[in-house]
């Protein structure tokens, strides 16, 4: 039954992208079942259906992170069914610890992070995704929503290095080569 559900979700995901005129890449299997998925750009609430479509096509259960303020009835029922993680953004350090700890509790875990943190223009991305991946010793998978080409692309994956700023510059350069400028103020 679980395999049938997986195929149905896959079909729904593929149909969603076909109707939208988009394509969606598959995460390479060698990355495994535990990683932090980051996505750029985050500029519309329509990012949520694209994320759901991505998880269906890739046959994975992602755990998108959203502001805890979104967890009101009836939305909370929908988000809980989608395995959404409500985040209290007032205590950043606790959030990193909570999410990193989930990796040790689960066989499969893919938190989804939009480092811009908002749909508004920002000067500096949030770096909690880096701290989570570093603490949990899991890779960061780089997802890019290319609206011009109508493609959801996997730009690569990486483990954290010794220095966060070096990794952020590396991530910025990867996205820059794809056509998107990550806001890294003064880097």
Overview of the molecule:
- The protein has about 190 residues and is of the alpha/beta class.
- The protein has a single domain (about 1-180), classed as Rossmann fold (3-Layer(aba) Sandwich).
- Helices cover about 40% and strands about 20% of the residues.
- The chain has helices spanning about 1-20, 45-55, 75-80, 90-105, 130-135, 165-180, and strands at about 25, 35-40, 60-65, 85, 110-115, 140-145, 150-160.
- Strands 1-7-6-2-5-3-4 form a 7-stranded mixed sheet, with helices on both faces.
- Helix 3 links the parallel strand 3 (about 60-65) and strand 4.
- The radius of gyration is 16 Å and the shape is globular.
- The N and C termini lie far apart (about 50 Å).
- About 30% of the residues are buried.
- The model has no long low-confidence stretch (mean pLDDT about 90).
Query: What level of helicity do the residues show?
Result: 40-55%
Shape: globular
Would you give the CATH topology?
Rossmann fold
Q: State the separation between the terminal residues, measured CA to CA.
A: 50 Å
Order of helices and strands: HEEHEHEHEHEEH
Strand arrangement, major sheet: 1-7-6-2-5-3-4
Low-pLDDT runs: none
Structure classification: alpha/beta
Estimate what percentage of residues fall within beta strands: 15-25%
CATH architecture: 3-Layer(aba) Sandwich
